[in-house]
Amino acid sequence: MQMRLLAAGKRMPAWVDAGVADYAGRLRGDFRLELVEIELGRRAPGDVRRAIEAEGERMLAAAGARTALVALQVAGRALSTEQLARWLEERSRLGEPLAFCIGGPDGLAPAVDQKACLRWSLSPLTLPHGLARVVVAEALYRAVSVIKGLPYHRP
Question: What is the model's pTM?
Answer without folding.
Answer: 0.94
